[in-house]
Write a structure and sequence with these properties.
CATH architecture: Alpha-Beta Barrel
Largest sheet: 8 strands, parallel
Number of domains: 1
Number of strands: 10
Mean pLDDT: 93
Distance between the termini: 15 Å
Number of helices: 16
Structural class: alpha/beta
Shape: globular
Strand content: 5-15%
Radius of gyration: 21 Å
CATH topology: TIM Barrel
Helix content: 40-55%
Length: 396
């Protein structure tokens, strides 16, 4: 059983993590300004808002204290940025301290981020690729001459994805046209393509929000994912500042979950669906192919995490819950997620152990499942060395 921390909670630092949902970091992160750094603590887009209000959030204040303790510097942004610039091999030191054994990366964001090979070298851990569907669709709108070519290139790219090392597909349709996915005819999808193609060529880029084409491509993606045995991650709940939170409710996926179209395709609800955590737990409790990931909630709402985890664990099987951070842009976001994730899980499991809800053996099994074993199984990762990772130093 895990040790007990000085505060009486289970100490999960010896259990490695697989971060199942994150992004790249800025290639020039060491040159980041205080304003750049502040952005990881908010999903807001307005820099003036971030500068004025983010320093007064509980999440930010807690993070600054913990980062300062790790770096041995004063608890302010300027001191932290200066200290990390002077720390040799900062990235591997940060990720070793966090006990992160693998990361699954959607590298589309940030736009000028490190590529996967650079992340592999920098983090010193396994890096797996997650393919974002909507970015592929936007690229093909520009590069294919007609709809049949668009369909063919889309399917070919997905069919070769696993051979290229892709471990999962991912959709951000929640932030484009919502999660009420519908069946779309070929004729309607073709008509939408033909309407969008001239606009995409004039602008040189198009942010795809047209529901018929987005939903049609998802149907194709489900077919390919089933053949390749690749999970599909879905952004749900909060995230980008321009979303309609009402249409990002994972409960809207229920019709498609019950449809043969998605049968046999593991679907991962990212962000716990927050604020729709109960809906996410419900779906994971009745559909064999639905999983829930805790990313973004763990980094932006750490004080609420024990409560939300308890809600999730009350209904969803422990085999269906996955760790993730949604870390992006600055490497500290992944480090903070690791600390907060283990702490919150330790709080909840300690409470259940003390109340006699769980036995010591079950506590160990659940902690390992959520931290890394569920990800190993779901994403079919061959990482036997995860079992013998050295104990992280400070990510309790």
């Amino acid at each position: 059983m895990p040790a007990i921390s000085s505060k009486g909670n289970l100490d999960l630092r010896a259990i490695p993590l697989i971060d199942g949902h994150c992004h790249s970091i800025d290639a020039n992160y060491q040159s980041s300004s205080a304003s750049d750094f502040l952005r990881i603590f908010s999903e807001a887009a307005d820099r003036q808002f971030i500068a004025q209000h983010v320093p007064h959030t509980l999440t930010y204040q807690r993070a600054i204290r913990e980062l300062a303790a790790f770096l041995g510097c004063a608890p302010n942004v300027e001191a932290i940025l200066e200290a990390r610039r002077g720390m040799p091999a900062y990235l591997p030191a940060l990720y070793q301290d966090a006990g992160i054994g693998g990361v699954l990366v959607d590298s589309v964001y940030p736009p000028r981020g490190l590529d996967l090979d650079q992340l592999q070298d920098g983090f010193g851990c396994y890096v797996g690729e997650v393919l974002r569907l909507e970015s592929l669709e936007e690229k093909l709108l520009l590069t294919t001459p007609d709809f049949p070519s668009f369909e063919q290139r889309f399917q070919e790219t997905l069919r070769t994805a696993k051979a290229r090392g892709v471990v999962a597909l991912k959709s951000i349709v929640a932030y484009r046209s919502g999660l009420a996915i519908q069946k779309v005819s070929v004729a309607e999808a073709r008509q939408t393509f033909q309407q969008l193609k001239p606009l995409a060529e004039r602008q040189g880029h198009l942010r795809l929000t047209a529901k018929p084409l987005l939903d049609y491509c998802l149907a194709m993606a489900f077919q390919e994912a089933r053949q390749l045995e690749l999970p599909v991650q879905f952004h749900t709940g909060f995230g980008d500042p321009d979303i309609d939170i009402l249409t990002a409710n994972p409960a809207l996926l229920r019709p498609i979950l019950a449809d043969p179209l998605a049968a046999g395709v593991p679907l991962v609800l990212l962000h716990m669906g927050y604020p729709y955590v109960r809906e996410s737990a419900f779906l994971a409790s009745i559909y064999a192919h639905v999983y829930v990931d805790v990313s973004l909630v763990v980094t932006l709402l750490p004080q609420l995490m024990p409560h939300l985890l308890q809600e999730l664990l009350a209904l969803a099987p422990t085999t269906k819950i996955l760790y993730g951070s949604d870390g992006h842009s600055q490497p500290e976001m992944g480090w903070l997620g690791a600390r907060y994730g283990r702490w919150a899980l330790g709080v909840v499991l300690s409470r259940m152990l003390g109340e006699g809800v769980l036995e010591a053996r079950e506590v160990q099994e659940i902690a390992e499942r959520i931290c890394f074993r569920n990800a190993l199984e779901l994403y079919r990762l061959d990482l036997p060395w995860m079992e013998s990772k050295p104990e992280p130093r400070g990510s309790g």
